[in-house]
Amino acid sequence: MTFPANQASSRSNRLRRSRGFTIVEILAVVGIIAALMGLILAGLQAASRTTRRTEELSTLRQLHLAWASYSASNNDYVMPGYLDETAQERWRVKYRYQVSGRVDPAICQTYPWRLLPYLDWGYEPILGYQPDENDNVPSKGKTGVIEPEAMEVADQPWFGYNAYYVGGWWDTDSSGNTLCRFSNSIWAQDNGSGAPIQTKGKLVLRTIGRAAQGSSLILFGGSTYRAPGIYREDSTFLNGSPWITPHILADQMIWNPYTGMIGGVDTASASTIGDILCGPASLLDTPLTLGAGGIDMEVFTAQAVPYRRHGAVSLVHLDGSTGSEGIGNLTDQRRWINAAHDGLGNPNEFSHSPN
């Protein structure tokens, strides 16, 4: 039996219409959808990161205003970065809770309890990165009692203070002398023609009027305390630290942008960082596969170091200007040490004697 040509063509068309999608076509559609979802997710993540970074910069401006108010109330002297208990006693300074009771000197060594009265006792600028920052912070205290929440204010603030070089780190030595660390350190000053002048002191900024470049000198910044190891760009919320250090502290390297070399070994030829580290893998933030991307800080000495809470280090400078920067931009010692502007040689390598 035969069909007319037009009926055969119609039957062929119906067969083509009913055969459906091939596996290749389905996979192509799924791939396109996945790619679009990836782009949308990346956009949402970037927008979220930008929003959170903007929130950080707003908080840093609040800290700067409070810090400036402290200075205005203390004859232009800037807030000290660290005061041990003996220094507090000798300076005759006492810090109180909002309602009543003295804050124990043991938790007033770092800056937060000094600054809170100038923040109108708002804990958001101190602990705002934590979801329950205002839930349990005490407003009054009892003599001899240190509540965990009060300790958290002192030890885990949102941002670290440039404590060693702005205001100073005051502690008491074994002889009972209370001194500002680095106040008598020796460094090489440029005489203007490239020759060194051995200079003593002038490293710690004590008054606002002596600032050489307030628009670039770091005051507060994202900070966390870390053990030696290799760290990638952060995506988790680590506890903050009450101070923050430059990559060279006195004459000791604290941290540096990651270069791909660990102990002189070229990491490009190794499969994982654990293959080449001389020590336990616990020194690492997490087990990292080389080439996975984002590894950009090596910590040499346990310290409070710059922390990229949302992809960059949020900062406020002495003049109140804010910004978010990568680790590589923070190796210029002039960003941390007022006197480094007059130092001899490469400003990224500026150092001084430890005492």
What does it look like?
The protein has a domain at 182-349. It is 25% helix and 18% strand. The protein has helices at 5-18, 23-72, 85-91, 112-115, 124-127, 148-155, and strands at 82-83, 159-161, 169-172, 178-180, 186-190, 196-200, 218-226, 229-232, 248-249, 252-253, 255-256, 261-262, 265-266, 295-299, 303-306, 313-317, 322-325. The strands form six sheets. Strands 2, 7, 15, 16 and 17 form a five-stranded antiparallel β-sheet that branches. The protein is globular. The relative contact order is 0.13.
Which labels suit this protein?
355 residues, alpha+beta, 25% helix, 18% strand
Main β-sheet, in a few words? 5 strands, antiparallel
The averaged pLDDT comes out at 83
Using only C-alpha atoms, the radius of gyration works out to 28 Å
Structural class: alpha+beta
Distance between the termini: 108 Å
Unreliable parts:
263-293
The helix content, as a percent range, equals 10-25%
Could you say which overall geometry the principal axes of the C-alpha atoms support? globular
Provide the succession of SSEs. Answer: HHEHHHHEEEEEEEEEEEEEEEE
Brief overview:
The protein has a domain at 182-349. It is built from 6 helices and 17 strands. Strands 2, 7, 15, 16 and 17 form a 5-stranded antiparallel beta sheet that branches. A 3-stranded mixed beta sheet has the order 1-3-4.
